[in-house]
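Notebook B, p. 112. Complex prediction, attempt 2.
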Amino acid sequence: MSSAPKPKILIVDDQPANITMLGGSLGADYDISVATNGKDAVRIATSDTPPDCILLDIIMPEMDGYEVCGVLKQHEQAKDIPVIFITAMSEEEDETKGLELGAVDYITKPFRIPIVQARIRAVLALKQEMDKRMQLTRRLSDSNKKLEAANHRIMESIEYAQGIQRSFLPRPEDITRHIVDWCVIWKPKDIIGGDMFWFEGEQDSFYWAIMDCTGHGVPGAIMTMLAGSSLDRVINDFGKSVPADALMELNRMIKAALSRRQTSPLADDGLDIGICHVDEQQNTLTFAGARISLFLVENNEVQEIRGDRHSVGYRSSDPDFQFENHVIPLRPGQRFYLTTDGYLDQLGGQRRFSFGKRRFRDFILQHHMLPFAEQQVLLQKEYEAYKQDEPQVDDVTVIGFTITPRGGQ
Amino acid sequence: MSTAFVVEATRSTPYINLDIESGTAMLKGSSYPENASQFYQPFFDGMEQAIQEMGTGTPASFSLELEIIYLNSSSSKVFMMLFDMLDEAAAKGLQTSITWRYHPENESAHECGEEFKEDLQHVPFTMLEVPDLPDF
C-alpha cells in the first residue's frame, strides 16, 4: 500500500441509505466525509481541509445540488474541486444544466459501483494533473518575481551610481567662464560608463580632458572614478601643468593603484586620454594624448593631431614613457574636437562597418562654422542615422569648442 | 584525435577555429565581448600550447588569419598579446605568420591592422584587402 494519504471524497445526499452504500464501497480507497444537506456540503467544501472530489446529489430539500455547485464555483478556494452529480434524474436537460454549472461528470441512479469508482479515479487523476500545473505556474511566477526584484535592485543601484558619476562631471558654468562656444556629447552605453570628461579652470588657463577607460557599465564607471581623481591629484596637487608630464604621472599613478593584486593574466586595465591645456596669456593650446587625437579645423582644413600610441595605466604601459606635447598657437576661427572611440567605432551603415575617422573628419569640416549648440544636435543626428537599429557598441563622448584669443583682433 | 577548437560566431564575438595539429587559426567576425580576457582565455591557452608544441617539430609552422569587422579596445589588448606571443616565437626562429584581412571600405579595420603591424618586429604580418565576392 502506498503511504500517501488517501484522496478525500465528500458525499452529499439527503438519503442516509445512499450515503451508507456509496461510503461503504468507496471507504477502502478514499477518505470519506459526508453531508446530508446543501449548507453542510458548502461548509465542508470551503473548510481548511477541503475534499479532492465531491459526489453531489441534486434533489435535496432547502438547498439543492445545483445551488450548492453554483455557490462552490463562486468560491475562490473551492471552485477547482471537481463535482460529480449523482442523481435519479436522467433527463438530458438536467445533465446539461449540471455540466453548465461546472460539474465535471454526471452519474445517474441506479449506479454500478465499479463505474462510480472508475469515474472518480479519472476525475482525481485530472485534478492531480491540474494541481501539478498550478504549482508549476506558481513556481514560475515566483521565480519571475524574484528575477524582477533582483533586476530592480541592480537597476536601482546602477541608477544611484549614475547620480554619483554625473556629479563628478564638470559643471557647465565652470566651462563657460573660459569658453563661450562649446558642446559635449556624453552618452554611456549602459547608463553609466567608462567615458569621462574632465575640466579644470584656473586664473588664466584651463585644462580640458577626455578619457576612455577599459570596459563600460559598472567596471568602466569604477575606472573613471580612479582616473578622474588621479588626474585631479596630478594637476592640482602635483602641479603637473604640462600635459605630457601630467600623462606620465597619471600613467604611473594608475599603474600603481591597479597593480596591488594580481588577477587574471589577461586582465589589463587602464585608459586612453586626450588632454588640452589652454594658456590664455600666451594664447596657446598644448595637447598631449594617449591613443586619443585632437582634431583641429582651420582654414577649411581638418588636421588630426595624433596622440601617442601608448595607453595609460595598463600593465603593458611603460612607466617611463614620454608623451609628446603639441603646442598650437591660438588663432581666431579655430575649431577643436576631441572624441573617444565610441563615436568613431559605432557599427552601422549598409555594411555594418564602423563609422570611421574619415566620415568624422568630413562631418566636422562641413559643419565647423556653426555654433556648437547646433553642431551638437547634428553630431547626435549623424550618429543615430548611421547606427540605425544597431546597438550602441561603446560609450560615446565628443567635445567641441572654439577659443576667442584674448587681445586678438 | 582532432585538436581543432571551434567557437561559433555571435553578434559580439567572432568565429574561432584553432587547429593545433596543422598549425592554423582563424578569427572571423566582430569582437566586442563584455569581458574580452575571459572570452579569449581558452583560445589563448590553445595558442600557447600550439607554440609550445612547435618546439617539438609539429606543427612545423603556425599561421593566424583574422578577418575582423570591428574590435573594442579590450579585445584589441588581447589581440596584441596573441600577436606578441607569435612575435616572440618568430624571434626564436619559429615559423609564424599573421594575415589581417579587411574590406576596402572598412577604414577602421584597415587602420587597426596597420597599427598592429607597426608594433610587431619579427612575425610576418600581411595586410590583405578582401573585396566582396561578386553577386550572381
